[in-house]
What does this fold into?
Amino acid sequence: MKKFLVIGVAAALSLPAMAAAQPGERGMRADTNGDGLIQMSEVEAQAQQRFARLDADGNGAITQAEAAEAREKMKAMMAERRASDEGKHRGRRGMRGMRGGEGAMFERADTDGDGQVTFVEYNAPMLERFAKHDTDGDGAISADERAAAREARKAARGTRGQ
Ligand SMILES: [Ca+2]
Ligand SMILES: [Ca+2]
Ligand SMILES: [Ca+2]
It folds into this structure.
């Protein structure tokens, strides 16, 4: 269980483009009121928290410097995790994902290209992901919808990994 919490923190420091590149439970573990459904408001609240962590000076936009700083922090965390046995497997996969996405990650999130990522830009991929999970479009992701997404992901991973 602890392992998953650590992964959650690392994912929290990543930019949305990266999160979108590897859609997963992490971003969707947002059922804060415990009703078994993940509401848009829950997802957004968590995104806001993550955004605030990235936005070091709190001016409502993530600059490239702030993103770089977050990346450094994440790298340190990855290294730490690699040092521990149980983090080995996932940690390596995380690094591989990062190598491909560095720099491009920020640019992809910065959709209007002004060199800063606002919350709207940050949140856009999450909304997209939410819509994708919420297959019946009722504004909440149920356990069934989550399971379906998990299955789809498993299938995708199976073909990719061979
Ligand atoms: Ca800022
Ligand atoms: Ca921007
Ligand atoms: Ca739904």
Observations:
- The radius of gyration is 16 Å.
- Residues 124 and 159 are 28 Å apart (CA to CA).
- Residues 134, 136, 138, 140-142, 145 surround calcium ion (ligand 3) (CB under 6 Å).
- Residues 9-28, 96-100 have pLDDT under 50 and may be disordered.
